[in-house]
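Give me structure tokens for this 233-residue protein.
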Amino acid sequence: MTRHELKEQVQHDHFLDTVDVAMDYVSAHRRLVTIYGAIAVAVVVIVGLTAWYLQYEKKARRQALSSALEIVEAPISAQATPYGKSFPTKQAKDQAAVKVLGDVASKYSGSEAGDAAQYFLGTVQVDNGKYGEAEKNFKTVADSKTPYSAFAKVALAELYAGQGKVDQAKTILDGLIQHPTPLISKDQATLLLAGILKDSDPARARQLAESLKGPTERAGVQRAADQFVQGLQ
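Here you go.
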């Protein structure tokens, strides 16, 4: 149907009147509208591609981290297993884990996947006695805004405690007690601090554990606190 026939069919439809005005404008300003139209299309394309890229990147980060953790969790076996990756020795496994976790941490620095990789890299380094490198990685993640920050702070506190730096460990855990996170609660941080103070300040450690005995909805925390206190006796 021609525009005239369509207009006659619907009489004075307001929408079509508006279309008429728009079409007249387009006829008079064809070049300008073409330019703006091209810009609008370009914006839509850019927005679409950006959304796709971000989604792709998120998926790629998850996949990269998952592949790295497969190596971290792989068994040590002299023979290949049909269930996934395996390594003949712990040394070979740790070398592979350090390489892949370092790659993910570097490539996706600042993202949750990158921080997770850097955190796990620190745990592998601790296991191999490379405490200086582990401390550096834990500090980087602890200062981030991702959820792994809390895990890194706990790992850093435990690392310091193992080196006899109890005051530094206490400062970190006191911070978590004052500012708990969804992943490390106030109760968990309190119990962790009690564990670190068990040898240097058993009275304070007992006091912290005793403070966790409370409402029944915290039964799990109570059991852990009771076991801790019994261990002090």
